[in-house]
Amino acid sequence: MENEHEYDVVVLGAGPVGENVVDRVRAAGLTAAIVEAELLGGECSYWACMPSKALLRPVLARSDARKVPGLREAVYGPLDALDVFAHRDETVGHWKDDGQVDWLDSIGVRVYRGHGSLAGPRRVTVDGPEGEHHVLTARHAVAVCTGSRAVLPPLPGLSGARPWTSREATSADRVPGRLVVVGGGVVGVEMATAWHALGSHVTLLVRGDGLLPRMEPFVGERVAEALRARGADVLTGVSVEAVVRDGGSGPVTVVLEGGDTVEGDEVLFATGRAPRTESVGLETVGLEPGSWLDVDDSLRVTGTDWLYAVGDVNHRALLTHQGKYQARIAGAAIAARAAGGASDAAPWGPLAASADHGAVPQVVFCDPEAAAVGLSLAEAERAGHRVRAVDVEMSSVAGAGLYAQGYRGRARLVVDLDREVLLGATFVGPAVGELLHAATVAVTAEVPVARLWHAVPSYPTLSEVWLRLLEAYRDGADPA
Ligand SMILES: Cc1cc2nc3c(=O)[nH]c(=O)nc-3n(C[C@H](O)[C@H](O)[C@H](O)COP(=O)(O)OP(=O)(O)OC[C@H]3O[C@@H](n4cnc5c(N)ncnc54)[C@H](O)[C@@H]3O)c2cc1C
Ligand SMILES: NC(=O)c1ccc[n+]([C@@H]2O[C@H](COP(=O)([O-])OP(=O)(O)OC[C@H]3O[C@@H](n4cnc5c(N)ncnc54)[C@H](O)[C@@H]3O)[C@@H](O)[C@H]2O)c1
Fold first, then answer.
1. What are the FAD/NAD(P)-binding domain coordinates in residue numbering (predicted)?
2. CA 381 – ligand 1 centroid, Å
3. What pLDDT, on the 0 to 100 scale, is given for residue 292?
């Protein structure tokens, strides 16, 4: 059965980003349809942010509690993995999207279930699960918000070895005795942290010389040190050459360059992401299937006046909050252009995702937590800024000792010496995730260091680390 329908805006992919695009264009009075092949809510809700953080929350809470005298004795038992899984399952709505359906219905967005693809300019076809076929025409814009998927490297034996990707690592309901994790990026580190605490013996295999290589080097050092202290094996500078699981069952052997092997019951490949653009009809509009989509600051695909690419798929920042920020901007830009005005995307205006360029915040929910915004020292120097970094040990503030006995953490500001504003800030230590937004405001708003002295942190909180950082900057202390 073929059905033709027309909307102002058609969105491909109902992850957090696609949902926010339709929300914004509907709020501006446009009609909108959204196409989803799996679950409304996307990777983030079911196989990424939400389940991973539900697995990690008891891990981090227990770790903090164990550092509080008088409380630690109460939390010395193992985690109850079945309870953790049950809470994770509840957090992801048992992999059902009824709530999202109701919400989209309530804002008047038509949902099409099925695989969507472009069929030339402003046209989208949808092939539904029951063989239904729809042709959707967009009067103003199509937004591709199809996200990303895990990449598996082309290694001998890997496909037959039933490797975990982020999907299995966030949805498994059995604790493997031994888990080998390949990749020292964010997924590798968070999942190594979670599964180690749930009871697996974890071996983390890292190709480079440290963990979390996109953050300041001291972050990866502290996180690796803590993982090792808790009993995980962290091997750096190792390269995986092959994976063997005889007959697809039993233990899995990971073969390293040089011939050493590591055995596990499961192996997780956390080796990065690829855009989900291989079968969305890009070739029908002169674009390369399978590519990340280049966009301008209003999220419009380069060389088009009707196609937008928002969220992971444009590769600007693979984070839910940053994708949703882009969605708010793309929605506003689509609405403004539909109304015939404001094609202007001036930096830091309502139609430009300017923060994508140097003010992206990220919290990694490992133990200790890691949080950073803006540029690292190396990135700032590479970009040609005249900068100085100031570092302090977080144990120097009273709030740290109260938060956790023996609190161990470090903070860094990267200061632009020509303008005396912050280009970046990084924190590693228990509970630093909640420190990050102050830094994001300082970096985004380019608050002068002289004015930051007047932003007084409450006593005795971890935020007093801001004072120590400003003092270190004033006193000319160099990073240790
Ligand atoms: C393990 C893990 C943990 C993470 N944790 C965090 C975190 O704590 N914080 C954070 O900010 N970010 C986190 N991320 C990143 C975050 O998940 C992504 O940045 C976010 O999901 C991107 O949203 P999106 O809407 O662009 O894409 P997605 O969430 O991938 O959604 C895309 C949607 O499009 C649909 N789709 C794809 N192709 C088609 C098609 N042809 N037709 C119809 N539908 C289609 C998909 O089914 C999917 O529902 C994590 C990622 C992983 C892997
Ligand atoms: N808390 C959060 O904000 C959070 C949590 C999880 C994921 N994410 C997002 O999801 C995205 C994907 O995360 P990810 O960890 O998969 O990707 P990533 O790019 O952060 O890390 C992948 C790592 O795998 C390594 N690698 C690649 N190929 C390899 C190989 N063949 N052998 C060994 N190592 C190899 C890379 O060097 C890299 O360090 C990230 O960009 C991140 O922003 C965010």
1. 7-321
2. 32
3. 98
Q: In degrees rounded to 5, what are phi and psi of residue 217? A: -55, -30
> For the chain, how many helices (H) and strands (E)?
14, 21
Ligand 2 within 6 A of 183 CB? yes
Provide the H-helix boundaries in 172-318.
186-198, 217-229
**Mutation choice for ligand 1 from 320, 326, 364, CB with most ligand atoms inside 8 A:** 320
Q: Which residues contact 31 (CB under 8 A, 6 or more apart)?
A: 7, 8, 9, 108
Amino acid identity for residue 448 in this structure: P
Average pLDDT, integer, range 153-170: 97
Q: Model-level pTM? A: 0.97
| Residue 310: per-residue pLDDT | 98
User: Does the beta carbon of 125 lie inside 6 Å of ligand 1?
Assistant: no
Q: What is the pLDDT of residue 171?
A: 98
Residue 147's nearest CA partner among 34, 293, 24 is 293
Q: To which H or E segment does residue 389 belong? A: strand 387-393
Tokens for 211, please give them: 């963990």
Q: Is any atom of ligand 1 closer than 6 Å to the C-beta of 318?
A: yes
Instruction: Give yes or no for residue 44 CB within 6 A of ligand 2.
Output: no
Please tell me the predicted confidence (pLDDT) of residue 163.
97
pLDDT in tens, 414-462: 999 999 999 999 999 999 999 999 999 999 999 999 999 999 999 999 9
Q: What mean pLDDT is predicted for residues 85-95?
A: 98
C-alpha 264/C-alpha 179 separation (Å) is 5
pLDDT in tens, 233-292: 999 999 999 999 988 789 999 999 999 999 999 999 999 999 999 999 999 999 999 999
Domains annotated on the chain, with CATH = 2-41+97-149+275-355 (3.50.50.60), 159-271 (3.50.50.60), 368-475 (3.30.390.30)
Hey, which of 22, 35, 36, 44 would you mutate to test ligand 1's pocket, going by the most ligand atoms within 8 Å of its Cβ?
44
Give me the chain's average pLDDT, please: 96
Asked if 144 and 313 touch (Cβ cutoff 8 Å), the reply is: yes
Measured distance CA(285)–CA(267) in Å, rounded:
39
Query: How many angstroms is it from 208 CA to the middle of ligand 2?
Result: 12
Ligand 2, residue 214: give the atom nearest the CA. Answer: 20
Closest ligand by atom to 42 CA: 1
* ipTM score: 0.98
Ligand 1: which residue has its CA nearest to atom 7? 49
Report helix, strand or coil for 113.
strand
Residue whose structure tokens are 């808790």: 230
pLDDT (0 to 100) of residue 248: 76
Q: What angle do CA 315, 318, 322 make, to 5 degrees?
A: 105
* Token pair recorded at residue 266: 């499961």
**In this structure, what token pair is assigned to residue 66?**
């164990």
